[in-house]
Specification:
By secondary structure, the protein is of the alpha+beta class. It has a single domain, classed as Trna Endonuclease, Chain: A, domain 1, CATH 3.40.1350.10. 24% of the residues lie in helices and 37% in strands. Strands 1, 2, 3, 4, 7 and 10 form a six-stranded mixed beta sheet that branches. It has a three-stranded antiparallel beta sheet with strand order 5-6-11.
Length: 170
């Protein structure tokens, strides 16, 4: 018997991002206490003497998952709790870059994962979002608009890690 759907979707979303990060040459350090950051991508590079080490230029992220993403006009619309929104938009420009990773599952929970002898398939797509600005008050949530072009891929993660090194989150 699988986990309850709300726990299952979170575990599968974590596995999705973990797989992309590994292909991008990064590890994920999960945060045990929730102060708004769910995890940190740590870029692994090869040093001059051949050792594999952390680059020292991480990327922080919040991970959200949904089975009810609204897609229209080349965007994904997602209702984000205001606390989570404010944590991202008010992050200092000189701090570690901070992104929202949204994993959108398709169909009903029994259809989210398929496997056979040769492959494991997650029926999901993922997107990234970041922004800067002023915090919002007196609201419970904010609908954010993520361009479909912001597809979370291993290549996108590599670019985030590179931007962290050069000091730009966008």
């Amino acid at each position: 018997m699988p986990l309850p759907p709300n726990h299952l979707i979170d575990q599968l979303a974590t596995a999705y991002v973990q797989a992309l990060a590994a292909v991008a040459g990064a590890t994920i350090a999960a945060t045990k206490l929730d102060f708004g950051v769910d995890g940190t991508l740590k870029h692994i590079v090869q040093s001059r003497n051949g050792y594999f080490i952390e680059s020292g230029f991480p990327v922080d992220f919040q991970l959200k998952s949904t089975g009810k993403a609204e897609v229209k006009d080349h965007h994904v619309y997602f209702e984000l709790e205001i606390r989570n929104y404010n944590l991202i938009v008010t992050r200092s420009e000189v701090a570690t870059p901070y992104y929202l990773f949204l994993v959108c599952f398709h169909g009903d929970s029994p259809d989210w994962l398929a496997q056979d002898r040769d492959r494991l398939i997650l029926r999901a797509s993922a997107f990234w979002w970041t922004s800067s600005g002023l915090s919002l008050m007196n609201k419970k949530s904010k609908v954010i608009k993520i361009p479909l072009a912001n597809c979370l891929t291993s290549n996108a993660i590599e670019k985030m890690l590179l931007r962290s090194r050069i000091g730009s989150a966008t």
